[in-house]
Design brief:
two-stranded antiparallel ribbon, alpha+beta, 11 strands, Butyryl-CoA Dehydrogenase, subunit A, domain 3, 359 residues, 12 helices, 14% strand, globular, 7-stranded mixed β-sheet
Length: 359
């Protein structure tokens, strides 16, 4: 049952058409995701195959894309990076997140000329499975959420000094059995931790001394980057889900007619298609704001994407006939984890709301 064509490819404004370089970038990521990640929706890969997938993902050279031009990189824009991350979501959401986990932190570090503050100076190691930078999302009242992959890895955190937020790299403890931490394990290597106290481990360095520079705040930039990354993952998952829905509803029949021919199903498909389109456009409009990003637009995007992604995931399960019928189909795999990523995106939105008024 083919469901290959993008549901948003021909719906963007003409002025937003991708140039040749962008099309090549997206095509390379899409081909990799279709070959190596999409099949994982049918079951958990063995260790050998997954390690090979990680190695092949590194050959896409996302690290070089992120590096600034003066160091031999491509200085990829946030907009173009979001397009790449969307393609990775052709497979399980948690696997796409694992392969791109450090990208948001690396983009923030690049913005503030702080890549030299990384404990491992080989930026490739943060995108080839060697190590990672865990995204830390501050909680307004106390503590933080962290999306974690490697034991004892570094995390991008927000620390309050005299009521002023500062961006830091902190070392997470090797164990996950801290008394002040509740951990939820996701499929694969990722886990989500909810810490109720200050960041654990030793603070390594301030990413940006003195809270930032004249044209922006580092904490806000970090939250914008992680919001864009999470939104791109969810946007890609929604697009792939709607691709599946269109093909599935044309091939599955009831009363000798494709279910797409039934008015109620057709209406649901139309609603999902609109959701995929608006999410994609909202993401691109925010990601295009390379300078003077509007915090309100980022918050609106985060809320919209998280809400719509959950709605589409639920609709997909219902389209397949409910819980018992969806097992073994792509919507079942995504339904198990999409709510966690939507939750994290909403936590970023709350942090943006809180820190917009400070610093």
């Amino acid at each position: 049952m083919p469901f290959r064509e993008s549901v948003v490819a021909d719906l963007v404004p003409v002025s937003w058409a991708l140039d040749d370089d962008q099309q090549g970038l997206v095509a390379a990521a899409r081909d990799f995701a279709r070959e190596r990640l999409e099949p994982l929706l049918e079951g958990t890969p063995d260790t050998t195959r997954w390690n090979e997938t990680v190695r092949l993902a590194a050959t896409l050279d996302l690290a070089t894309m992120i590096l600034p031009e003066q160091t031999g990189g491509m200085d990829i824009s946030r907009h173009d990076l979001a397009l790449v991350v969307e393609q990775f979501a052709a497979g399980p959401l948690e696997r796409a997140a694992e392969l791109t986990l450090s990208s948001a932190a690396l983009m923030t570090l690049r913005e503030y000329d702080a890549l030299d503050r990384l404990p491992d100076q080989h930026i490739q190691h943060y995108l080839d499975g060697t190590t990672s930078i865990a995204p830390g999302i501050p909680v307004v009242d106390a503590g933080f959420w962290v999306l974690h992959q490697h034991a004892s890895s570094h995390a991008m955190m927000v620390r309050l000094e005299g009521g002023h937020p500062q961006l830091v790299l902190a070392t997470l403890p090797a164990g996950q059995d801290e008394p002040d931490c509740a951990v939820v394990a996701l499929p694969g290597a990722l886990s989500i931790g909810r810490y109720t106290t200050a960041p654990p481990g030793d603070t390594q360095c301030l990413v940006v001394p003195d809270g930032g520079r004249a044209n922006g705040n580092a904490v806000r930039q970090w939250l914008v980057d992680v919001a864009t990354w999470l939104a791109a993952l969810l946007s890609g998952a929604v697009q792939q889900g709607v691709n599946f829905a269109l093909a599935y509803s044309a091939s599955r029949q009831t009363f000798r007619r494709p279910i797409a021919a039934h008015q109620l199903v057709a209406a649901r498909l139309a609603d999902m298609l609109i959701s995929a389109h608006t999410i994609h456009l909202f993401l691109r409009s925010v990601a295009k704001q390379e300078t003077q990003v509007q915090i309100e637009s980022v918050r609106s995007m985060a809320h919209h994407v998280a809400t719509e992604a959950l709605d589409v995931a639920r609709e997909l399960v219902q389209l397949c006939g409910g819980h018992g019928y969806v097992q073994g189909l792509p919507p079942a795999a995504r339904f198990q984890t999409v709510h966690w990523f939507a939750m994290l995106l909403m936590k970023v939105e709350a942090a943006l709301r809180a820190f917009t008024a400070t610093g």
